[in-house]
TrEMBL record, chains A, B:
It holds the Pfam family Acetyltransf_1. Keywords: Acyltransferase, Transferase. Residues 8-150 form the N-acetyltransferase domain. It comes from Fictibacillus aquaticus. It is an enzyme of class 2 (transferase). It comes from the Bacteria. Coiled coil: none annotated. This is Uncharacterized N-acetyltransferase CGZ90_03385. CDD domains: NAT_SF. GO terms for molecular function: acyltransferase activity, transferring groups other than amino-acyl groups.
Amino acid sequence: MNYEVKRLVVNYKTLEEFKQFKEYGIQELSMLEDLQDNIIENDSESPFYGIYYGDKLVARMSLYKIESAYDKYFEPSEGYLELWKLEVLPHYKGKGLGSALVEYAKTFNLPVKTNGRQQSSGFWEKMGFEPVSYVEERDRGENPYVWYPQGVSEQRLA
Amino acid sequence: MNYEVKRLVVNYKTLEEFKQFKEYGIQELSMLEDLQDNIIENDSESPFYGIYYGDKLVARMSLYKIESAYDKYFEPSEGYLELWKLEVLPHYKGKGLGSALVEYAKTFNLPVKTNGRQQSSGFWEKMGFEPVSYVEERDRGENPYVWYPQGVSEQRLA
């Protein structure tokens, strides 16, 4: 089944829908304040992508581009995407919506890095991700799982 | 009630006990490999602190010192502690073990930063922590809650 993944815009409807997701936090509150204070415009681009069921947002993720100067995971280092807040609403799980979002993230053909949450390693491995070699100073308790596009490999740290 | 908080040493018993915690991940697997490969010695210091009930580890957290050169949260900037993997085993919740660990983290008299997990803001605020002003480039989807010792405040970003 193919799902349409949309880049989400920041407006009051989107921010209201975000409240349904468990990982609603400081990031979303900050977006709401910026909208209220006219620091960002209505319908401006957000780092979030999502899948709608009819009019209802039922799955989302955030993608944030890390520039190569800050890339400590990949080589050659041409920047990568950090994927976070991947979440499917409870009644919509098991339909492949999470996988569809992750597959979409891969289409940019940049390496992807995520912090695999508890007991999610099976999911990430199914999606073609691999755990990194853990480095305390860099990874700080995270569970980094990464996806390498063709020609990219793990960065050897000095 | 006062609980004794101990710095945990890395050995096979500790690493076996870590498997009871939901946030067991790449960090713990890496410690196990390092022990097996003799890269680290048995009973070497770990970044983890915990509380025992008799002989059984029932609560833990990790504290990692961030040097001032990498401090983007506090000023004056004299380094801070990053607290992660705070977790109490299910049967031992509601007894103040989590609070005891956090209070222990404060005794170093350095600022403390954590990534508040979903719906934990009430707990962190009760512990005297505050949410930061969210900055996408720095916080990348995290929910940073911080504790300021006397004389320390939020860093103003350029």
